[in-house]
Structures are given as C-alpha cells and as structure tokens.
Amino acid sequence: xxxxxxxxxxxxxxxxxxxxxxxxxxxxxxxxxxxxxxxxxxxxxxxxxxxxxxxxxxxxxxxxxxxxxxxxxxxxxxxxxxxxxxxxxxxxxxxxxxxxxxxxxxxxxxxxxxxxxxxxxxxxxxxxxxxxxxxxxxxxxxxxxxxxxxxxxx
Length: 154
Fold this sequence. Notes:
Elements: H1 8-20, E1 22-24, H2 25-31, H3 39-51, E2 55-60, E3 63-68, H4 72-87, H5 92-101, H6 107-110, H7 128-134, H8 139-153
Antiparallel strand pairs: 1-3, 2-3
C-alpha cells in the first residue's frame, strides 16, 4: 500500500478519524474539539483524504459513511521510515542515539528492551555530496592542458 504525505491540517483531522474508525460527518462534527471547523471544510478534507487513500466512503441513502483505510500504525511506520531515511542515514541506531543525547528518551524509558544503553557518540555529518557540488573537480582544465601538450609535441 502506497502511503501519501498529509498536510498538518489533514494529519490533525486524521488523528480524530483514527479514534472513530468508522463514522458519519455528524460524528466528526460532534467529536471535533473547539473551535469547530465549518461542515463544508470538513467535507472538503474528507474528499481529499479519500483521494489520498486514507478513507473510504460508502453511500447510505443520502449520506456517506466513512471508514479509515490506512491504520495509524502504518502511518507512524511511514513517517519514521521517512525521518530515518532523510535525516539519520536509514539507521535506527542513530535515531535512538539522537533521542538519548537530546534527553528525549532516558535510560529508564528503555528498560525492558534488550539493547545496549551506552550513549552514542555524535558523528560529524557527512557532506561528501555537498562538497562535490560546491567544490567540483576542475578536470576540464586538465584535458585542455593535455590537448595543448599534444599540439606542442606535434
């Protein structure tokens, strides 16, 4: 299943919808915290979430019954994978090390998990690709120099 990105507004609405699982528009309006959005706004978001594959709708008479199609756990997994790939070189170890070094997770939080709780050393970021772009090799001059040398030799 391909999961698409959500905007922050869509994500906030989905948090409520994941709690409801199966619902009508009136259920959303009743459960939505204050300040409540206009019903048309919610309807527009529901259409968008259907297009993105997060919801399905089934017509029941004149109204629609909606149901979540992407479980919260799948969305969490998607977000963590994106975060890991984009900011931690795909390494769960780097994520845990960062959480510990920033005091977002403590050794107490990690009790019960069979892992080594030694703090991870902070590594310098690898800017290999940025350096290649910012400081390109000047091979063109070398090839021009070689051509000049060949002409002189002739």
